[in-house]
Amino acid sequence: MLYKFHKEQEQIEKVSFHNIKKVGGNEKDLENLLANHLQDFFSNPVLMPIFQERKWQEEPDLMALDENGTLYIFELKVDFVSDETVFQIIRYAQKFGMESYAKLDHFYQQWCKTTGSPYTDLKTAHKDAFQLDSALLESQFNCKQKLILVGNAADGKLAQAVQYWQEKGLEIDFMPYRFYEIGGEMYFEFFAKPFDICSFQSNQSKKGVLFDTNGKHNGLQSVLDMLQDKEKKISAYGKANRFVDWLKKDDYVLYYQVGYGVIAAGIVTDNVAENLDGEERCRRVNLLTDMIWCEEDICAISPRELEELLGHGFFYANTIKRPYLSEDEAKLVVQKLQEKYQEKRKEKECDLKN
């Protein structure tokens, strides 16, 4: 709940909230909003969307997987969520919790077709999205299910129903969303859990951003160009070049090279993005790690090392990997990478002496 603070009277006043109809939306718009921003709302665990409801079908509004293959089933309501909705989502859990890997792969193929995303089989897509060392076995998908009800408001009956089923061992929860109109502008709030991670990390003035260096399409050529430029930069290309605008001055940028991990780090130094030749768009950075001239110079923090260092994973399928890092997390990664390069310099010095 959001409150307005009246300083002189030292009083607080509830700010009225609205559902998605306030911005001209409906349940499908709410579904798309959640699906498109799952990695913003859920950071522990990070979720990979694999399915959205089709018209006139008895299906959940949204389904997603975590890195362990657990199936998350979402049921959304524009406004009030009644206790009857609990029975609806339990029916979905019974039906879709029994689905085989082949069926999940079919759902994912349909989702890729609908969203215009390139399709690879679900095992491969899942492995790449979470940068797993090896793909999950088909038998490891959908071993567990978690049920999430989303709505604008609820009553005591829903809370009692959710608590009842939680006590019976069913993993089910209610997460409200709200729109606020403040100063003529609309604000969106989503109560994802755990609150301590999702609610605070990305609201800091400085954040850490795991940024893809286009290695999948261009090998090391792109990142070497970024780091060897007279004015160091972080770049994105083509349709993905808009992502550099998501960076702010003083953000930490962690250069993520596919097949390696984090290989360099810098701090954004400019206020606006710059268009370069072709479809390249960039931000200028102050490099915090050693210069890389060739492959032999590279030190890296692998995805597994990164997860061990920070205590959580990432969703790697996009140019910007989610979730964002806190400033302290970013500094920890930078320190670890600097130590790796320092050790490499010492090894080179020893080799020269010998």
Structural account:
Residues 196-202 have low confidence and may be disordered. The protein has helices at residues 27-36, 38-41, 84-96, 101-115, 122-130, 156-167, 195-198, 215-218, 221-228, 303-310, 327-353, and strands spanning 3-6, 11-14, 48-52, 62-65, 71-76, 80-81, 145-151, 153-154, 172-182, 185-190, 208-212, 233-237, 252-257, 261-268, 274-275, 280-287, 320-325. The termini are far apart. It has 354 residues and is an alpha+beta fold. Helices cover 32% and strands 26% of the residues. It is globular, with a radius of gyration of 23 Å. It has 2 domains: 3-199, Restriction Endonuclease; 204-353, ph1033 like fold (Roll). It has 11 helices and 17 strands. Strands 11, 12, 13, 14, 15, 16 and 17 form a 7-stranded mixed beta sheet that branches. Strands 3-4-5-7-9-10 form a 6-stranded mixed beta sheet. Strands 1-2 form a two-stranded antiparallel ribbon.
Task: Provide key terms for this protein.
DUF91 domain-containing protein, 6-stranded mixed β-sheet, Restriction Endonuclease, 354 residues, 7-stranded mixed β-sheet
